[in-house]
Structure formats: structure tokens, C-alpha cells
Design goal:
Strand content: 25-35%
Mean pLDDT: 89
CATH class of one domain: Alpha Beta
Distance between the termini: 68 Å
Structural class: alpha/beta
Shape: globular
Radius of gyration: 24 Å
Number of helices: 15
Low-confidence stretches: none
Strand order of the largest sheet: 2-1-10-9-11-12-13-14-15-20-19-17-16
CATH architecture of one domain: 3-Layer(aba) Sandwich
């Protein structure tokens, strides 16, 4: 029986009273500990503060912060009262922040002190009455004043209460607010804990931003659910990653593929640490390349448990099984051209559907669909988007990702993602996966990062360009890359134009912004619109 977060807060924690729930490292490396008893007390302070501000069950608040103990405390206090949180990236644009405030109709905003004046100015023209509370400044002290004994009487939450509104980072149009209920978070936490065999006392490290569902669900809600310990970092840095795993005896850490790329560049830090406590690394929330997965496992001898999910499905919906042998796991990571995202976890069903909503056979590509207890309630105030997302009925949420599945010897479906449908390159009426092209480009010894993007072409509708970031201190030429791709890809999939740069645009959670890059390069690539690119032996 799944309990609400309020009930979990009210449960007797005597056995974990002195156990640390949070071990926190700020940006300067300062380490602090918060036991379960201290954390519950801090939550009580915030519950009383929210109550005094007139915030009640069903209301919404916003947090605008980097990874902070205070932010975690505000989350749990709100959930314990049945209040919904809209976490926002501190680096968001003014227009986006203003939109989220108005769209969510938030009663209050909790913001880091250095940004509080900026937020107050933004809200001067806001039509919603929203209070702004600065955290880490003098006026935030009432938040964490000593709680009275009566605060638990204020806990009044249900698993059917809204818990989160996560605003998507779409490249066009206004962001959509994904409504997640407490039951979504708790069912996913239960499934993640069961899949990864997490027990009381598990030690997990969080290096991802906790304004996103990955950081929130995997490394906050799940450890609290099973009474574990979280090593929370204000920021990710390769310079301390392994050292903190060693020092804190971390057993599981959740990352995105971009962080694996950064860690692959590390050498000297490994000479002075041991990370034998680490069971495996959870990796998802972005496109993982085969080369990256295999190189990482070979270099660090740490298993990568690849998984998949979206904000709309709470967090993770599938993982590679953790009981696979090293050989079996590497087969699923490499044999089919894309790393498998695994099989559905508890409370989820997955399928591949065609444009008519018909299930596809093994190996045939279509859109990945998910249904179950972790699928969102809806997009907030977006009937059009809800109709599109659930257009085939039956509870199936259409993810917008193209994929396929292969059955193992036991009949379990192992799913694969081949790319975002909106990111597919359509050349001459044929759908091409940019991830497949990225994979080949990344194998060139002088290439650090690579993204394939389409550009408008008179003859084929779209042709393929590649944006390349060379490895530091290296220079790679267009002719080298043309030859490299010609040896590994059929002509239809080969990039015809190469553009070189210093960095890729990424989201706050480490996903490359392919569509944004496409728009950035549009003018530069327009000179190739009327060129007919031909293979050397192509028929005329």
C-alpha cells in the first residue's frame, strides 16, 4: 500500500533518527550533514511557515534555486501539506519565469537571495498575487525557526494530490506544465527501488539539478522512500566526482550521457581514489551513444544501467536489468546500433505504435508509447496538447520518440530509442536517425562532440549537415570526416556539409539542443539549398 508523503513524514523514524538523510556539498566544497531527525524538524519549520502565509492544500508554489538543502526541505514540506511545487531553473529567461508564474498561479516563490530582487521586479507587472521569499538571507530565517510540536497536525496530503508541475523545455511555443501527483512520484520511487534492489541505508549521490524530475525522483524521493542517504552536490564537477564517491562510500549515482563524456576525459583523479563501493551508474535522460557506453565501462569497470523515461512519465519507465552478466549487458548496449533502454519496470507498460495506434511487431520502428501509474495526470491548461499526447486512447501516452524492441530468450521486450520524431532527418522521403550518424562521427579519434542536423535542400527536401567540436588541441578537416563517414555509412546517411565550433548547446539536464542548433545554423546552411549532392558513382 503506497502511503502519501505526509504519511511517510509522520511515520516513526526512530530507527533512522541519527542516520543522515542528506550530506551536502556546496559550490566551495563545504560539507554538512542533516540527519533524518534534523530533516523532519526542518520540514516542520517550513510547514508552519507555509501555514502562516495562508498556503493550503491544493495551492501551488515555485522554487527558483540551485541544489540546496533548503530546496529539498521546501519540497517535502509542501508535499506533506498537499501543496504542489513548480521547480524552475535559476538560469531561466525572464519571459519564461514570468510565464510560469502566471500559468501556474503560484501563491509564493522561494528564490535564492541573489536573485530575489530580479524576481520581484519581474512580478511587478504580474497579474497573479504572488509572494516572494528569499532563501539564505535574513528574511528567510523564519522559514527554519524552531517548529512547535503541533506542526504534524497540519499534514493533510493524499497520494492523489498534485506534487509537481514540471515545465517542459520545448524549442518552439510556450512550455507545457506536466502535472504529476504524489502517487506518480511514489509509484516510480517504489519501482526504481525494487529494480535496483535499494534497501534501508542505501547511499546515493545526486549531481543532477533537482529542479528536474531525474534529480528529484531518483536521488531525493527514492532514497527517502527506502530510508537511504543522499549525497547532494550543489554542482557537478569532474574534479570531485570520484573522490566524493570514494569518501562517502556511494553505491549508486544517477547521471546523464553528457556527464559520462566529461568523465571519460578524467585521468589523474583516478590515481588517488578507490570507488569499490559503487555498484553501478544509472544513466538516462538523453541520447547515449554505443561508443560512450562501452568506452566508459572499459575505462572505469563500472556497469552502466541505461534507462528511459520523460517528465510526462514521472521519471524512469524502463531500465536494463541489473542481473545481466557483463557480457549480456554489453550486447544489449551495442549489438543493435543503439544502446537498449531496457525493459519496462513495475507499474509501467510500453509498446511501439504506428501512426494509427497499432502495435508494431518486433524490430519494426514506430513511436514509443507508455501507460501505467507513473504517467502524468495531464498538461496544465493545455487541452490541445493532452488530446495529441493521448490521441490513440487506451491510456497510452505518446512520447514523441521513435524506437523498436527486440525480445530476449525469455521473451522479455528490450526497447531501443532511435531519436525524437521531430528530430528525424527526412531525406527524399526516407526517415533517418541523427543518433546513428552522431555515433559514427563520434568514433573519429579527433572528434569530441558531434551532432547531425538537417538543412533544407531543393532536391531531397532535407540533407544532412554535421556540427563538429574537435578534441582539445586537435584539428580535424572536412576531408578527413568525409572519408571517415564514407567508410561507415551509406551515402544517403553521410553528412554533406560540416560546420566546426567550440561547444554544443545543452539543456540544464545535459541534453543536446539539436533543434536549437538547427535553427542557429539555418542561415549558414541556406547557401547549400540548391546543391544536388551526389555519390561518386551515382546515376544521373
Amino acid at each position: 500500500m503506497i502511503k502519501s508523503i505526509g504519511e511517510l513524514m509522520s511515520d516513526d523514524i526512530q530507527a533512522q533518527r541519527d542516520q543522515n538523510f542528506l550530506i551536502y556539498y556546496d559550490r566551495h566544497g563545504k560539507r554538512t550533514e542533516t540527519s533524518y531527525a534534523d530533516f523532519i524538524e526542518r520540514v516542520g519549520c517550513v510547514v508552519q511557515f507555509l501555514d502562516k502565509q495562508g498556503i493550503r492544500r491544493g495551492d501551488r508554489i515555485i522554487t527558483l534555486m540551485q541544489n540546496k538543502v533548503e530546496q529539498v526541505t521546501i519540497y517535502f514540506a509542501a508535499w506533506a501539506m498537499g501543496v504542489c511545487v513548480a521547480p524552475v531553473n535559476l538560469a531561466e529567461s525572464d519571459d519564461r519565469i514570468r510565464f510560469i508564474v502566471e500559468q501556474s498561479m503560484a501563491r509564493a516563490i522561494f528564490v535564492q537571495s541573489e536573485a530575489s530582487n530580479k524576481v520581484k521586479k519581474l512580478l511587478m507587472r504580474n497579474q497573479v498575487e504572488t509572494s516572494v521569499f528569499s532563501v539564505e538571507a535574513d528574511d528567510s530565517r523564519p522559514l527554519f525557526a524552531q517548529a512547535g510540536r503541533e506542526w504534524k497536525a497540519l499534514l493533510n496530503s493524499s497520494i492523489d494530490d498534485e506534487a509537481l508541475i514540471v515545465y517542459t523545455s520545448g524549442t518552439t511555443g510556450k512550455p507545457k506544465g506536466v502535472i504529476l501527483k504524489q502517487k506518480n512520484l511514489l509509484y516510480d520511487a517504489e519501482a526504481i527501488a525494487e529494480w535496483h534492489q535499494l534497501q534501508q541505508g542505501i547511499r546515493m549521490m545526486c549531481v543532477l539539478p533537482i529542479h528536474h524530475v531525474n534529480g528529484i525522483v531518483v536521488t531525493l524521493v527514492t532514497p527517502f522512500f527506502c530510508r537511504g542517504t543522499v549525497i547532494l552536490n550543489e554542482r557537478f564537477s569532474v574534479s570531485y566526482f570520484w573522490e566524493r564517491i570514494d569518501r562517502e562510500q556511494v553505491q549508486i549515482v544517477s547521471v546523464v550521457p553528457t556527464l559520462l563524456e566529461f568523465l571519460l576525459e578524467v585521468d589523474k583523479e583516478l590515481q588517488r581514489v578507490s570507488f569499490t563501493s559503487l555498484r553501478h551508474i544509472i544513466c538516462g535522460a538523453g541520447p547515449l551513444l554505443v561508443e560512450t557506453a562501452l568506452s566508459f565501462e572499459k575505462k572505469f569497470n563500472v556497469p552502466i544501467i541505461h534507462g528511459y523515461g520523460l517528465s510526462e512519465t514521472t521519471c524512469y519507465s524502463s531500465f536494463l536489468p541489473i542481473d545481466l552478466s557483463d557480457e549480456e549487458r554489453r550486447v544489449w548496449l551495442s549489438k543493435y546500433g543503439f544502446p537498449s533502454i531496457g525493459t519496462p519496470i513495475k507499474h509501467n507498460q510500453m509498446a511501439i505504435l504506428d501512426e494509427h495506434g497499432t502495435k508494431q511487431a518486433e524490430g519494426k520502428r514506430g513511436e514509443i508509447a507508455i501507460r501505467g501509474e507513473t504517467v502524468m495526470e495531464a498538461y496544465d491548461k493545455r487541452a490541445d496538447a493532452n488530446a495529441e499526447a493521448f490521441r490513440h486512447g487506451g491510456g497510452w501516452f505518446m512520447t514523441g520518440d521513435e524506437g523498436f524492441y527486440k525480445n530476449d530468450q525469455h521473451g522479455r521486450p528490450f526497447f531501443f530509442i532511435t531519436g525524437r520524431i521531430k528530430e528525424l532527418i527526412i531525406r527524399g522521403g526516407i526517415n533517418l536517425s541523427p543518433l546513428e550518424i552522431d555515433e559514427v562521427l563520434k568514433k573519429h579519434p579527433k572528434v569530441q562532440h558531434a551532432l547531425a542536423v538537417p538543412f533544407e535542400n531543393r532536391f531531397y527536401g532535407e540533407e544532412i549537415a554535421a556540427y563538429i567540436v574537435p578534441k582539445e588541441g586537435m584539428t580535424v578537416t572536412e576531408s578527413e570526416l568525409i572519408q571517415h563517414c564514407a567508410q561507415r555509412l551509406p551515402f544517403i546517411k553521410q553528412p554533406k556539409v560540416f560546420i566546426f565550433g567550440d561547444e554544443l548547446p545543452y539543456t540544464a539536464t545535459g541534453k543536446p539542443k539539436r533543434l536549437q542548433l538547427k535553427e542557429q545554423l539555418k542561415k549558414q546552411l541556406s547557401v547549400h539549398r540548391n546543391i544536388q549532392f551526389r555519390a561518386e558513382n551515382a546515376d544521373r
